Amino acid sequence: MRDNLETLYGAVDEGALPIGLPAFVRREFDGYLGCGLLCRGFAHLKCESCTERRVVAFSCKGRGFCPSCLGRRMAATAANLVECVLPPAPLRQWVLTVPFPWRKRLAYDGALLGAVTRIFVSTVLRFYSEHTERVAKEGAAGTRSAKSGAVVVVQRTSSDLKLHPHLHVLFLDGGYRELGADSVSFAELPRLSTREVGDVLENTVGRIVKHLRRGGLLASLDGEASDESEMDGLAALAASAASGRSPPAGPEWRRKNMPLSPLVATALQYDKPLCASLDGFTLHAATRAGAMDARGREALCKYVLRPPIAQERITHGPDGLVRITLKKPFADGTVAVDMDPLSLLTRLAAAVPPPRRHTVRYAGVLAPASKLRARIVPKPTVAPAPIAGESPEPKKVAGSRYRPWAELLKRCFSIDVLTCTGCGGRMRLVALVTEPASIRRFLRGLRETSDAPVRAPARGPPYWKSRVLRRAAGETSGA
Fold it and tell me: Where are the alpha helices (DSSP H) in 215-283?
C-alpha cells in the first residue's frame, strides 16, 4: 500500500480512473498506514517487580479491512454476544446472498439494504414462530405465540475481495413463549429440512420483488428503461469492485439510484443439504451450534464477524502483481487470484462501509425494544474490588461491558502485554504518549526511529504494473 497509494490518488485525481475515493475511504487508507507505528503514539508500560519496560503502539481502529483492528473488534463483539446477548439456546446461521447485478447498488444504498435485511429477517422469524408453535402448542392455555431472535451481520466482500454485500444472520434455533407475567419457555426447532429452506427463500424473494416494484425500484421486465447518465464516482467504484474489473469499462454509467436490473428467472434448486438458490439469490442454513456448546457458539460469532481478509492471504505475485490466496477453491479449481496492486486497492476501497452505517443489528426478541430481551439475555458477572477480611460474591450486571485493549489482544492474538517476560510479574500502564516531541524523545532513548515510513511517490502514466492492464487502457508506450 505504501508503494501504490499515492499512485492511486494521483490516477483518481487526474481522471485516469473513473472512480471516486470519498473522504472516509481516504481516511481509512491513511489510518491503516499509521496502524501499529510507534511514531504515531504508544502506551508505556512498566513492570511492578523489575525494571522491564514495554511500549505498545496505537491502532488505527479501522472499520474496513485492517486485519488487526477488525480482529480485535471481532473478538470483543463475539465475547459480548456470547456473554451478554445470546441466551442459552441453540444458534443457526442463515446466509443470504443477492443477485450479482444488485450488489453495486446495495453496497452504498443504506435504505435499500436495510429494507432487504428487514424482509429476510422477518421472513425467517415468522418461519420460526409458525414451526415452533407446533412443538409448544401443548403449553399452558392462553400463552402467546413463540418468538425467535436474530443477530444480523452485514459482510461486504467475497473471499477474493470483490464487492459482495451479503447477510450472515444468527437466529435462535427455536422460539420463546410467554407462560405468564414472569415466565418464559424456549421451544427448540426439532429439525430443519432442505425443502423448508427453499420455502423461506421463495417467500423472501417474492417479498423483496414486491417491495421493489411497489417503490418503483425494479426495472420493468421488458427492459424499458432507464435514464442513462454518467455514474458518480462512488457508484463507479462499487461497479468496478463488484465486477472485479479496474478501471470500469464501457460507455454507459448509471447512477446508484437507478432501477435495479430485473431478476433472471431460474427454478428453485437445491445444490447441497439445507442450501437453496432462486433467481440469483442463495440461502444457506446448514451451520448450527448447540445451546451448551460454548466454544462452538463463540466460534460461530467470530465467523460471521470476521475481517474481509487475513494478512497472510495477501502475498507478492509474479511481475509486480499481488496474489490473494483463496480460503476455499472456486468451482473451476482456482486457488489464488493475481491482480495489479491498484486493482487490490480499488477492492479494499469498496470494502470500507460508509460512515454511520451499522454492520451489526438485532431483531426479534434480541432487539433493544423487545419486552422479552431483559428476561432471556444472560446476566454477566463481575468480581467486585477485594476488601480486606472479606470474600464478596461476584455480582450480576446488566448490559455489555467495556473490554480493555489488553484483554482483546490476549483473547484474539494470544498476546499478554500485561505479563512481564523477565520475572512473570504484572505490567502497569505508566502513560499514553501522544505528543510528537515526547514521542521523539522517548523513541530516541529506545534507539527506535521516530519517522514514519515514507510512501513511494506517485507514478505517472502508465499507472499500472500489469502489462495486460496497460494494453487494455491503451498505454502501450510504457509496456
Answer: 233-243
> Which H or E run contains 93?
strand 91-97
436-440, long-range: CB within 8 Å, 24+ apart, which pairs?
Answer: 439/38, 439/39, 439/40, 439/41, 439/42, 440/39
Residue with cell 427448540: 188
User: What pairs with residue 176 in β-bridges?
Assistant: 147, 186
Query: Which residues 6+ apart lie within 8 Å of 176 measured at CB?
Result: 146, 147, 148, 149, 184, 185, 186, 187, 365, 372, 376
Strand arrangement, sheet containing 42-47: 53-57, 42-47, 427-433
Per-residue pLDDT tens digits for 447-479: 888 888 999 999 888 888 777 667 666 644 444
91: helix, strand or coil: strand
Over residues 237-291, the pLDDT tens digits come to 777 777 665 443 222 233 335 577 778 788 899 989 999 999 999 999 999 999 9
Cβ–Cβ < 8 Å for 122, 200: no
Phi, psi (rounded to 5 degrees) for 396: -90, 140
- Specify the residue for cell string 460469532: 301
The pTM is what? 0.84
Cα separation of 76 and 88, whole Å?
19
- Element spanning 445, H or E: helix 436-445
Query: What does the block give as the cell for 479?
Result: 509496456
